[in-house]
Amino acid sequence: MEKPLSYLPFGIIKGTRSSYLKLYLKDCLTGMKDFIKDDTIDVVVTSPPYNIGLNYNSYKDTLPRKEYLDWIKMVGTEIKRVLKNDGSFFLNIGNRPKDQWLAWDVANTIREDFTLQNVIHWVKSIAINKQDVGNYQNVIDDIAVGHFKPVVSNRFLNDCHEYIFHFTKEGNTALDKLPVRIPYQDKTNIRRWKSTKGDKRDRGNTWFIPYKTIQKRAERPHPSTFPVKLPEMCIRLHGLKQDLVAMDPFLGIGSTAIASNKLGVSFIGFEIDKGYIDEIVIRLNSAIN
Ligand SMILES: C[S@@+](CC[C@H](N)C(=O)[O-])C[C@H]1O[C@@H](n2cnc3c(N)ncnc32)[C@H](O)[C@@H]1O
Q: Tell me: the pLDDT tens digits for 97-152?
């Protein structure tokens, strides 16, 4: 069994697959200014607080909208400073039933510093009627898979997706689409299209990444996380290479840190709540062991 991770001064975690994982108990704006040099980060995968009154331990998620967007703008500008020119900034955010502009208001704020290169739809749950898909052999009946928070209202639909906005500095960052490709359903396509490379097609911008089924609320120690597979796919899509450095300014319980460790990518992250940082160390230990 590998040695348990130790949490060292300045947040450096030892014993991981990555050359380094640095987790700072610190406000991200101060942290980025103090610890990260210009043009040094390859890929940012993050999800900021959505300002929807969630119960985080330390952060108050209820700012007036303008104040919230001004703060998001400052974080975006700081990310621009630290990101390399060919870097990728994946920003995950969702809406509320009563506030369908929230995600787009945030994206529009970031737009002042970045180009929106791709919009990815993170699909948490999907329903497929057999009659709509014809002869697909793998779909033998109507199916509904994945989890979502049900909306109790006759006005709004259950919200089964969130956005991942892929921002880059100039809109021309080359991606590595191969690792996130999926096999063709109709294998005749492999011969039909000249550009086809084996039995894999571009996954497109709808990513079905369900939450794990949990039995008890205690299994979710944070009110708003994304599955580790989400940052893993973003980092793979940006392209794995030697000495890659990933960052998450809003660590939460560290899904991007765990994905980075899994991929052997160096990582820097910030979180203002000590309890969440402690949880990251527990999750990293169990991921490694
Ligand atoms: C949406 S959650 C991120 C969850 C994360 N993606 C995960 O999967 O665990 C946002 C996090 O940002 C933290 N936060 C809020 N303000 C912050 C700040 N100024 N600097 C760093 N972290 C902050 C909150 O405590 C919260 O844990």
A: 999 999 999 999 999 999 999 999 999 999 999 999 888 878 889 999 998 888 98
Q: Does residue 149 form part of some domain? A: no
51 lines ligand 1 (CB under 6 A): no
| Weakest mean pLDDT among 59-73, 103-117, 274-288 | 274-288
For ligand 1, the distance from its centroid to the CA atom of residue 161, given in whole angstroms, is 20
Mutation to probe ligand 1, out of 235, 251, 282 (largest number of atoms < 8 A from CB): 251
* C-alpha pair distances (Å), 36 with each of 8, 41, 161: 19, 8, 33
> Residue 236 sits in a domain of what CATH number?
3.40.50.150
Please state, in angstroms and rounded to a whole number, the distance separating the CA atoms of residues 166 and 37.
22
Domain enclosing residue 30, as ranges:
6-124+162-181+223-288
